[in-house]
Design goal:
230 residues, mainly alpha, 14 helices, serine/threonine-protein kinase, ARM-like, protein serine/threonine kinase activity
Length: 230
């Protein structure tokens, strides 16, 4: 019955009331049926939609949802739908007023694993890049994660240059990392798969008629200037 209700809500694009009972039921579903892939897929999708509410995000922090999400992603890493939804929830939790930096740090390697696994799956990569951006804004990445994360973000951009939202998420995440360290700047210049600067320039030309994308790329370039690497 629960699976039927979840699927019906998604298929009919039902607006779910954002009360604690609904959120609590979804969390309980995740915990009691953590090995039921079909049910978890639907529950995570609804949780992603609900988590955009600050009230729901606050409740999810209270019940400690992060370890549950990360366990689900580890178990179902090849499942793009689950990974997309979980990264969406991570983003909502990271930008909420109740964000706990210490707990969010554990989401960094798992989110990176999602991006690595789904580099060529545009929608999932987009969601993972968004989550990495939010995590970088919260200062959740350690210094030894700066370089591999930069490489991974550049790979995502290289694989999906035509996705405007992904391009913006990648640039925002890189800019956030550049404000913390010069390591991303060095990697942008010396990327083993080709100059990151050339990649950004080519991407800028590709989105020449999209002012938001161009502005985001220019903002990233401006962050590079402070290190004298341009």
């Amino acid at each position: 019955l629960l699976k039927y209700l979840l699927l019906t809500a998604l298929e009919q694009d039902v607006v779910v009331p954002l009360d604690e009972n609904v959120t609590s039921s979804l969390v309980e579903t995740l915990r009691k049926h953590s090995h039921n892939q079909e049910l978890i897929t639907s529950a995570c999708r609804l949780l992603m939609l609900i988590a955009t509410s600050e009230i729901a995000a606050e409740y999810l922090w209270e019940v400690g949802i992060i370890p549950d999400l990360l366990s689900i992603v580890r178990e179902f890493l090849p499942n793009g739908k689950i990974c997309l939804s979980c990264c969406g929830v991570v983003w909502s939790l990271a930008v909420s007023e109740s964000a706990d930096q210490a707990l969010l740090r554990s989401a960094v390697p798992v989110t990176a694993a999602v991006l690595q696994e789904h580099l060529q799956h545009g929608a999932v990569a987009e969601s993972a890049c968004s989550a990495l951006w939010a995590l970088s804004l919260q200062g959740c990445l350690s210094e030894d994660e700066f370089e591999p994360t930069t490489v991974l973000l550049l790979d995502a951009l290289r694989e999906n240059p035509g996705r405007a939202v992904l391009v913006k998420n990648v640039c925002l995440a890189l800019a956030s990392l550049l404000r913390l360290s010069e390591i991303p700047a060095l990697r942008l210049v010396t990327d083993s798969n080709g100059s990151g600067i050339n990649l950004l320039t080519d991407t800028c030309h590709l989105h020449f008629h999209d002012p938001q994308v161009v502005e985001t790329i220019c903002m990233l370039m401006n962050e590079m200037v402070q290190y004298g690497e341009m």
